[in-house]
Amino acid sequence: MTRNHPRRPIVGIPCDVKLLGVHPFHAVGEKYIAAVEGGAGAKPILLPVPRLSEGTFDLETEIEEIFALCDGIFLTGSHSNVHPRNYGGTAPREGVLFDEQRDALTLGLIRASVELGVPLFCVCRGFQEMNVAFGGTLHQHIHEMPGEPGFAPRFDHRENKEDPLEKQYGPAHEVNLVAGGIFEKILGTGKIEVNSLHGQGVAQLSPRLVAEGRAPDGTVEAMSVRDAKGFALGVQWHPEWKYWENPVSQKLLGAFGDAVRAAMAPSVKERQQA
Known about the structure:
The protein is 30% helix and 21% strand. By secondary structure, the protein is an alpha/beta fold. It has one domain (10-273): Rossmann fold, CATH 3.40.50.880. It has a 9-stranded mixed beta sheet with strand order 4-1-5-6-13-12-11-8-9, with helices on both faces. Strands 2-3 form a two-stranded antiparallel ribbon. Strands 7-10 form a two-stranded antiparallel ribbon. The two termini are 18 Å apart. 40% of the residues are buried.
């Protein structure tokens, strides 16, 4: 083994905090790790989130340390929701799962990534975090909301948890992409078919964000950051699921990987070329 072998770009994936038995664990679904490694061609690194009870969390220092290590950021889906206090939402219903430790890191990390041009790809919960990070709001139970004006009636975007995984993650509905938008340019088409496994959704879209794609009922499904310095995209669906079988997923993950490789720290590139 040689020590000067060129390394892959590093993509940080913030963890969820999950109870396994009576103890909290930091965790990231294997499918997301596989998508970053195989689909984007990057080295995934799991990022711990803060222990808020200790009161010693310094967000600015945490983000500086993350960017010293990582060339890109990938935000995953999760069973937990963004806490409504982060966007002025109503009190949540009993039994809804939250992860305020993740919120405490990711919302600031999203803003910093965009500000510094660090490539950022946000999926499902990460998509919702992106909207909240820039001042947007969420429907906590989007299937109960009336449809968007000018679109088809609202339908249920949740999966049937009793179905086998293959069906849960199977094609659920179309997404119409904005003509001339970033997604259309990456994918080479104006219409795609996606899976759907979410109970929350965008209510008020942040003015900083561009709705790049919508479901037939008007639900925002794809977005970009307006005037971003680098790759900064989010999708409401799950492109990580068996990405190797899905041309849309392959193109999106490939574009993210290309952006991360292009954004690798100059000092790293110089060491590799020496």
